[in-house]
Amino acid sequence: MTLKNLEIFYDLAKTNSTTVTAKNLNITQSAVSIAISKLENYLQIKLFDRIGKRLILNSNGKLFYEKSKKYYDGLIDSVNFFKSDNLSGELNIAFSKTIGNYYMPLKLVKFIEKYKDIKIIKSIENSTNIINKILEAKIDLGFIETEVFNKEIEKLKIAEDELIFVSSTIKGEYFIDTLFNKKWILREEGSGTREIFLNAIKNIGEINIFYESSEFEDIKKVLLNTKDTITCISRYVVEEELRNNKLFEVKIKNINLKRNFYVIYHKNKFFTKIIKEFLNFVIRK
User: What's the pTM?
Assistant: First the structure.
């Protein structure tokens, strides 16, 4: 059982495709298949089930991944530490849309400029998907704006945010229930923003959901072009529109929605040198 065979196994566990793994690691598909066969022969178990053209971890594969990955990460980190003073390697992270599109971009660019030998694999997803990927060990770190109470997940606060109410035609100050008949635009199910807002009003009444979207630019376009529409959204997302008086903040008398931005990770995650430096960079910047 070699480090290369393990590297191929961990990558294939994420991609479920020998073609994609071969491309990721710059090897042939046959090399991927041979490596997995050698690993399975060494362990004397099957690690994957073939479903169509995809290779999916079976229960043995999931158990081996869970038990071995943190030790592999630790060994690779130790090897890299003695090979070079420069950080190099790969970091797989996922951001919620608010954090990934509005809070983190400049921080991420500065990190990449400083550490040119680190490959960042990132995705933008809703908070529910990110939590699931952490639990399935498919990403190293997740950045979300919703609370998480799973005992397998650790969280660290990195910033504060405020959810506000905005519209292009509704102005002034109101009690929330007087706006329930307006045309409400919400994020898709699984969104942290949507969850926080709906939890805040669940004992007050029900809103008229006019439109739902996973994209902020889509939401803002509808707000700007449709009368009597209103939404609950992060201040970060609409800073420019508020500044240019294209959208207006609607003051709500009986609701104040503050929230935190968190980085989350699996409690058994081994913190490589790269992960430690990335977290220090994010927090101190």
Answer: 0.65
